Inverse folding.
């Protein structure tokens, strides 16, 4: 039997059978192009390697193959027969090794030891992109048989520092996760909804950034410095599309054209919806705490104006965290109280499902005992702030705040329109502050960047140790003028936050509103983001919760919940999609997580599916780790709370009103969000059940308001339905 | 020989896409999907699976486009995604890699000589399996050059090595393939 030579193989490999794609494939692909696509900053120009005409390339390839073939033949002749036998023996060794590899590829290394075949761990990949890869890739690229020839080659390459043993496969992890496991009971349509959500969502800034460049990047061991740069680049790539004014403008225009409803050009960005995660694949759920509440007030504004909220504006955790659940304050000397309780899930995915609520409540600080504050307001006085009396609301809000000030607090004012200017150097003279506020008048366009820059300059030169140094940005979030664009300012916001000047963003207005920018700025600036739709809301944020807004109890607060795989089969975290942190980075202090102010209360809801055969009473169900840094002191603290079956109520009706309220708030948010996990889209039903719970919570005004809101939304929806008919 | 979209045009389309022009995305798909499909078809040897994987490739591409750094050509980048999509598919526990084929490759049929009139398809299958059994860097090089139609220079840039190194790899790969295929024949 003749042994095929290299040239023959090259020819066969190059053979062009025509593989015509099946009909309809093009249409299918096109139909899956998402409505919004972000593109990396660097758009390729003409690559040099490309200038070469195709024909020429093939001539080179062909001649190369010829040369290789001829060379090989010559080499072999020279080697003589004995060598040939040796090399054959070698290849016989190689063949079984190759077969072994194929077999190894079959069983999934990611599976639990006894687990049933599970879909790919989508959530795992998306959550801790940096983690699993090595283990997961191993089977496909085992260290190849160490033939001397190859080892030499590897070594020489290592010397040249060009290549790592594992490079080419590093790419898959950059590629977003394959579709998450669809819920078994849900039809395919729903699965695809989840997929779109999750994949689109998980913060590219964190995930992509950690891993490094998507295909095309330099493989191999990379010096730290390069890694760092790559991280920065990726961050910019992931973030800038939203912040880049050009793209933002285009998107806004598109959005306006598309929906043309409710408000002009409002920019929200959905972070998707968390999927159910199999505990054998990933038993850890890690996220940064979030005390923002803007998403709820934005929706309230929508409904108040007679519209249903934009699904992209709904962040479930911000809805849940808006409400008071009457959770106990921490004991003396403790920073946090952690409460956990559960009950059968109202989402009714099956009898084994439970809703688990964690509440983390920060200690309160009496108004008189908070640290003095140096507040630099950066106020948007652009033309857009003239609409709907936005500036009027800003002024009224500021007047409310002034009455809360203590003699040692200072307030300064920077305004920006076309340019930024200093209205008042931080001062404790209330009359001067009052006069400055009265002088606020709308003007020109919106140069947020310059406004913030000047704000930081002012706050920097008025910085006081042992005080709360804070910028408060009041804006509708539209940055339409500025030389370098807001991404330039993002870097500064992060640096200043580390230095001790934090940033709180207060959103006003709705037309031309940029929710995403406001949230990102506050997130980077270690501050809070609130949307002020009414003076009442301004009072809540700037008067009732002023201490919490001004004084941070915990910095970089992260939560890791470990679900016990023996008891829990699957779980999903409701909300916190854009706060996800890679599991293995929980104890990494460089990860930017959430800040929690005095008296703030953070609630996290999990829907979990218990194993039918779980050894119920002996095992913990879940364990929550809370990790944070004490500001100023800098101590890292970690506390633990275990949840057992004793924390679960036997029926939904028997659950605490707090748990039921939280469950209903989340359900309503999921309905508005269009989450695939929402039980139904019947707003009347949710409103009715809310009413029932509210009756048991006398004096909880916010809950009462939510029931009203749900009823109103149901009427709006019914009205829309009629109009469409 | 299929023609590859030229870089300048890709650049323009990407710029249009960045500016929010959705039709640019459609045009990019039209330009590239044949190549992607053809690559996957060669890699997996199954037309239906290739179509599925092609769709998956584009889904991933849209999602990871923010991370596209422009250092390589768009089509090279897309090739890389398609390739890893295929490898992921192999690793995926549940989805089928045609089982009987996997079996074949794992345990070579003891008596293939029975029907010695090896038809083209079977031969193609053997070659494909032999390519897949190559060590990763060789496999990538062969696949990229012959099935992905990437120019040597692009592969080199992508792998961070010189074109000469790629040629060396190619030589090694062809030798190994010759050995592997020869082996089967001998038996």
């Amino acid at each position: 039997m003749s042994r095929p030579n290299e040239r023959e193989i090259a020819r066969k490999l190059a053979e062009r059978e025509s593989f015509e794609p099946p009909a309809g494939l093009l249409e299918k692909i096109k139909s899956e192009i998402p409505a919004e696509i972000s593109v990396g900053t660097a758009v390729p120009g003409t690559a040099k390697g490309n200038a070469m005409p195709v024909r020429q390339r093939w001539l080179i390839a062909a001649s190369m193959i010829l040369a290789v073939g001829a060379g090989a033949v010559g080499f072999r002749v020279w080697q003589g027969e004995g060598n040939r036998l040796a090399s054959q023996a070698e290849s016989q060794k190689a063949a079984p090794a190759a077969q072994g590899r194929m077999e190894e590829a079959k069983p999934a290394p990611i599976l639990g030891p006894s687990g049933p075949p599970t879909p790919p761990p989508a959530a795992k990949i998306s959550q801790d992109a940096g983690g699993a890869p090595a283990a997961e890739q191993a089977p496909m690229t085992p260290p190849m048989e160490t033939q001397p020839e190859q080892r030499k080659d590897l070594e020489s390459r290592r010397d040249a520092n060009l290549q790592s043993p594992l490079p080419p496969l590093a790419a898959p992890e950059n590629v977003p996760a394959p579709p998450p496991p669809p819920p078994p009971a849900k039809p395919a349509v729903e699965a695809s909804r989840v997929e779109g959500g999750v994949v689109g969502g998980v913060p590219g800034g964190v995930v992509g950034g950690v891993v490094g460049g998507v295909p095309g990047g330099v493989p191999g061991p990379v010096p730290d410095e390069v890694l760092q740069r790559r991280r920065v680049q990726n961050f910019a790539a992931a973030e800038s599309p939203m912040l880049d004014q050009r793209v933002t403008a285009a998107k806004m225009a598109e959005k306006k054209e598309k929906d043309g409803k409710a408000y002009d050009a409002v920019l929200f960005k959905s972070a998707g919806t968390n999927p159910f995660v199999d505990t054998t694949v990933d038993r850890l759920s890690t996220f940064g705490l979030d005390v923002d509440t803007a998403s709820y007030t934005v929706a309230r504004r929508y409904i108040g104006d007679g519209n249903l909220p934009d699904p992209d504006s709904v962040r479930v955790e911000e809805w849940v965290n808006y409400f008071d659940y009457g959770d106990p304050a921490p004991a003396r000397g403790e920073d946090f109280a952690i409460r956990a309780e559960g009950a059968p899930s109202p989402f009714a995915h099956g009898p084994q499902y439970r809703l688990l609520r964690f509440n983390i409540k920060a200690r309160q600080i009496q108004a008189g005992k908070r640290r003095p504050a140096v507040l630099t307001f950066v106020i948007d006085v652009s033309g857009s702030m003239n609409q709907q009396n936005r500036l009027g609301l800003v002024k009224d809000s500021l007047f409310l705040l002034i009455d809360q000030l203590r003699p040692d607090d200072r307030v300064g004012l920077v305004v920006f329109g076309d340019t930024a200017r200093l209205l008042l150097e931080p001062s404790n003279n209330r009359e001067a502050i009052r006069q400055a506020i009265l002088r606020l008048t709308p003007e020109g366009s919106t140069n947020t960047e310059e406004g913030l820059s000047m704000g930081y300059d002012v706050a920097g030169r008025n910085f006081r140790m042992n005080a709360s140094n804070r910028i408060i940005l009041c804006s509708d979030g539209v940055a339409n003028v500025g030389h370098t664009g807001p991404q330039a300012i993002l870097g500064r916001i992060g640096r200043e936050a580390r230095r001790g000047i934090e940033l709180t963003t207060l959103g006003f207005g709705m037309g031309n509103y940029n929710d995403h920018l406001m949230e990102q700025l506050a997130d980077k600036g270690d501050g809070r983001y609130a949307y002020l739709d009414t003076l009442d809301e301004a009072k809540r944020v700037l008067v009732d919760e002023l201490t919490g807004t001004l004084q941070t109890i915990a910095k970089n607060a992260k939560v890791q919940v470990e679900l016990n795989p023996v008891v829990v089969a699957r779980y999903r975290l409701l909300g916190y999609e854009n706060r996800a942190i890679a599991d293995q980075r929980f104890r990494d202090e460089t990860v930017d997580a959430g800040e929690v102010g005095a008296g703030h209360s953070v609630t996290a809801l999990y829907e979990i599916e218990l194993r039918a055969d779980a050894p119920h009473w002996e095992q913990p169900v879940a364990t929550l780790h809370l990790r944070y840094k004490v500001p100023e002191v800098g101590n890292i603290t970690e506390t633990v709370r275990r949840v057992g079956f004793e924390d679960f109520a036997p029926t939904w009706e028997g659950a605490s009103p707090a748990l039921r309220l939280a469950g209903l708030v989340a359900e309503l948010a999921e309905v508005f969000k269009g989450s695939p996990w929402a039980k139904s889209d019947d707003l009347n039903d949710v409103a009715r059940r809310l009413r029932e719970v509210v009756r048991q919570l006398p004096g909880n005004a916010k809950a009462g308001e939510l029931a009203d809101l749900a009823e109103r939304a149901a009427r709006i929806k019914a009205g829309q339905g009629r109009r469409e008919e | 020989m299929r023609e590859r979209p030229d870089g300048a045009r890709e650049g323009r389309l990407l710029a249009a896409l960045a500016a929010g022009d959705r039709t640019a995305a459609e045009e990019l798909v039209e330009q590239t999907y044949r190549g992607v499909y053809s690559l996957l078809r060669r890699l997996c040897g199954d037309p239906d699976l290739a179509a599925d994987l092609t769709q998956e490739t584009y889904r991933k591409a849209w999602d990871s486009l923010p991370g596209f750094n422009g250092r390589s050509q768009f089509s090279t980048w897309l090739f890389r995604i398609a390739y890893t999509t295929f490898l992921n598919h192999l690793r995926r526990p549940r989805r089928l890699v045609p089982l009987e084929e996997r079996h074949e490759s794992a345990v070579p049929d003891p008596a293939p000589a029975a029907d010695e009139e090896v038809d083209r398809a079977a031969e193609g299958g053997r070659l494909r399996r032999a390519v897949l059994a190559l060590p990763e860097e060789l496999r990538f090089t062969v696949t990229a050059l012959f099935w992905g139609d990437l120019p040597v220079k692009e592969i080199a840039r992508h792998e961070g090595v010189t074109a000469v190194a790629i040629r060396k790899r190619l030589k090694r790969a062809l030798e190994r393939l010759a050995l592997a295929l020869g082996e089967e024949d001998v038996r």
Remarks:
- DSSP finds 22 helices and 16 strands in chain A.
- The first strand of chain A starts at residue 277 and ends at 278.
- Residues 470 and 502 of chain A are 5 Å apart (CA to CA).
